């Protein structure tokens, strides 16, 4: 077997995985309307990929306020919860494991996506320049449009943000998810609070690293209290360079957060590397420092090949590797790695929005052989 280590079992918290191949969270903009509800088609898509060691769902907004793109799924209504219960059930029926990634976009949004046309919210009123979001126009057409000017959240609103994540965590638990992943990466709200370029606050949630990380820690503790810390993970991206995010202390703040994650006792950190978004590569010194700061499992996600992923795990620098684009086009990715088989090429024209084409119609090895 060419990738013995990548295909070997591993444990995240109390969840045993049969392999170390993780399906990365992938925004596909295919939630049913109205209501941004997961559909039967979404359930089929995830079930096709159930052989992954762990599936992490597409980012899922914890509230209407947390939405930044049209047709991304939510987990704040009864209908959405029921939709996700069907998704989790479909994955479990094929003996898979699935985590719900909880998400608030913060300033990366547009008034048309917000309740009553309200402005998006952020740590500070700093617009995400050169950043576009996917919206539906009044005439029913779809378009990419510039993110709107945000307003700064008041201090007394921040407990409400935490409660949005708490409510979503309760819904995810009732829906039958095996784990919850808190999205604190990729320039969205929790990351905006951490970053020096987007957090200019003068209250207890701004200033030094401890204060800038405070909201993330509050959310993490609250979600862990609902799900159990050993069934919670968190995504971080210390060198992310998209959505006009600037952070002079990205690595330092992520290491502080990793220490807090260790204290809380969460199951894993999901390290999103910057290579897919123009960020600088992570140094080997940083990788070692992260291992020293945090004692749980580490999942890495970037433009890895199976060979590179296997080597990264063998060197002890990660416990599992998440694959994104490869999972779009290869529902049987684990089996392809096991056989050393070629991969299907994803169709970029069908990444966002649409129906089954480019979503559930990629052939498996067995189907291709028929």
From TrEMBL:
Source organism superkingdom: Bacteria
Region feature (Disordered): 348-370
Membrane-spanning residues: none
Short name of any one Pfam family annotated for the protein: Oxidored_FMN
Keyword Zinc-finger carried by entry: no
Ranges for domain NADH:flavin oxidoreductase/NADH oxidase N-terminal: 6-344
Classification via InterPro entries: Aldolase_TIM, OxRdtase_FMN_N, Oye-like
Gene Ontology molecular functions: FMN binding; oxidoreductase activity, acting on the CH-CH group of donors, NAD or NADP as acceptor
One GO cellular component term noted in the UniProt record for this chain: cytosol
Cofactor: FMN
Name of protein: NADH:flavin oxidoreductase
